[in-house]
Structure formats: C-alpha cells, structure tokens
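BUG: 3D viewer hangs when loading the predicted structure for this chain

Environment: internal workstation, default settings.
Expected: structure renders.
Actual: progress bar stalls at 90%.

Input used:
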Amino acid sequence: MSWFPQAALNAGVRKREVFGWAMYDFANSGYTTVVLTAVFNAYFVGVVAQGASWATLAWTLCIAVSSAITMLTVPALGAHADQRGAKKRVLAWTTAGCVLATLALAACGRGDVALAAVAVIVSNTFYSYGEALNAAFLPELARREAIGRVSGWGWSFGYFGGMLSLGLSLAYVLWAQGQGQEAAQFVPVTMLITAGVYAAASVATFVLLKERAQPQPQPAGPAGQAGVGQALARLARTGHQAAHYRDFAWLLACSTAYQAGIAVVVALAAVYAEQALGFQQTDTMALVFAVNIASAAGAFLFGYWQDRSGHKRTLGATLVGWLVMTLLAYAATGPGLFWVAAVLAGLCMGSSQSAGRALAGALAPADRLAEFFGLWTFATRLAAILGPLTYGLVTWLTAGNHRLAILSTAVFFVAGLLLLRPIDVARGVGAAGGSSAD
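Structure tokens produced before the viewer hung:
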C-alpha cells in the first residue's frame, strides 16, 4: 500500500499541491527551531540580557506579549481571509513580516534588550498568523477520513526544514568557534540563515498551493461594512453558535491546556539545558537536532494511527507521553536521562501537534476554515502565554530553580487529558457538516 495515496486527497487535489502546502511547514519550522527553541532564546538570556536575574522572565514576557497580540487579532484575520477568499494572499504578507523581523534579530547584541524584545514579538506574531492560515488549507486538501495522515505528512516534513536551518546554523557555529568567535558574533549569522531558509522554501507554497475559497457575499448596509468590522461581526455570530460547536469549544480548552506545556518545551528547552544541566550551545543544538528527527517520525507515524484509531484516542496517548517526559526531565541530573526525555518529547511533540491540527480540521465547517483555525490559534497563543510565563514565574520565585519549573509543566498535560474527555468527535464532525468516526 502506498504511503502517500491519491485516495487520501479531495477530488481535484494533486500531490504536488500537497507538497507545496507541506513546504510551508518546512519553511517556518526553522523559525521555531532556531529562534525559539535552540539558539536565540538562550542567547537572549545569556548575552542580550547578560544573564540578569530577570532574563528568563523577560524572555517569557516577550513570548506572552506576542501571543496576546495574536489572540486579539488572529480570529478576525481568519474571518477576513474567509470572506475575501484570500488565505493565500494574507499568508504571503504574514510570511514577509516574519522573515523581515527575523532579519532584525541579527542586529541584536549584548545589551540590546529593547530591540531584541520588539523583533521577537513582531516575528513570533507573524509566525503565528502564518501557522493558522496554512493550517486552514488542510481540510481543503485532505478527505476527512484521511486528515490525520495528511496533517502528519506536512508536520513531519516540516521538521526536516527545522533540521536544515539548525544544521546550517550548527555548521556555522562550529566553524566560528574554531575561529575563536563568541556568541555575539556567530548567533546573529544564524538568524540570517533562518530567515533565508524561511523565505526561499516558502516560495514553493505560493507557486503550487491553490486558493480554493471564493469571496463570500457581502451584506449591504451598515451591518455589511467592509474590513475588520465585518470580520468581527462574523466572529460574533460564531460565538453565539458556540453550543452548536461545543466539541470544537472543548477542543479549544483542551488545546490551551496541553499546548501550554508544549510551549514551555519549545521556548525554554535550551534555557533549561544550559541553566540546569550545564549544556554548551553546541550540545543544545545537537540535542534539538535529535528532537526534530524524533518529532518528524512521531508526526508521520501517528498520523496513520490517528486515522485508524481515532483522533481523540491518539491525542490522549500523546499527552500521557508528555507526562512521562516531564517526570524524566525533572529527574535528570546529567545529560543521559535528559537526552531520553528530549527524544520522548520529540516523539510526543510531532504527534500531538499534528493530531491537534487534524482534529481541529475535522471539527471546522468547510466554509469557515480560516476563521475556525484562527480560533484554534487563539487557544495555542493563550497557551504560549500561560506555559512559559508560569515557568518564568516559578524560576523567579524559587531563585532560579529550573527543575521545579519543568515539573510544574506536568499540570498542563493533566489538565489537557481531563479536558479531552468531553469531546465527542462524531458529534462534532456532524455539527461541522461532515461524517467521521471517533
């Protein structure tokens, strides 16, 4: 049986178009891998903020501010893209915004806290917009019964993009260190590499991916005024219909909980490795490289399991894995056990992220995909505030106890499991206008 069957795709969708869609995951993964996970976060704490006692909290506040901006704006942005049939056009603008702000990170050196904070906030906000808009194409490409595996194709392929950016950055860092350079000299170059890969790889998306959505009729009169006001009115109608989409609402609550824990790993894994376990920057980059390999395998394989075993069961299994990972990371006092925890985190990260996106696609109405994925992104950005900010506050209140901070992350995964239970996938798919088994 083919691993990439044409039968998994909707009528009229060609495999090259799915490749173009997956290339966006490939393109933007370098941003999360290099900027948020492996390099710039630790550089911000140790070099830009010069290791100040407030440095970790300051980094988490930057993530929180960008997430708050996204929360307040992305649902209306999604509604606007649906109304105009303009997901692809808006995606192009958000991509340019993230690439340019990532280039600005290359100008940040020792003491440039304000510049770094603004560049991180802007780049992460535009990254989040792009993630939501690209995800909204998924239900247009994949049949509902195959949405798990197609999501897994994109998410797993995306990790190879992260590995490309990280691998090029690691090669440069090793060369620069051999030349006697310090972090303030070589880290800015890794930002240029990341922005370059993002811009170049995303070209395939805009060449191959089709905009299938059509502009929707605009109501006449004051209530039908164009622009943001109309998008907000549409969003308000969705809020009034929350009871009809209650399983999607439960998914948003569940996603907020478990994504808060994932956000800690994404934003603070390198900080934890260096501050709690004494990892050097090259060690951390090698660790994250291995995590990406595990994440790619998890996203790809769990996508097939998800279509066979059900969205809910698959997501629940990954959350149990996250709990085990948290306990292993807390228990680690040296690199050995932490490497085991990191690889397990990779498997869980790829699978849970892909499973959540596929489940959101299954529960979203076909004519409001960008709007509903905007709401899903609202939940993930709220999580990106709660998780890292909790971690930062725990380290601040405990005089830098990173091990206790990582242990506190387990609470988010427990909450995610509890909030997953009320979701009835078949009922939710029916409300969205489709049909599927749990």
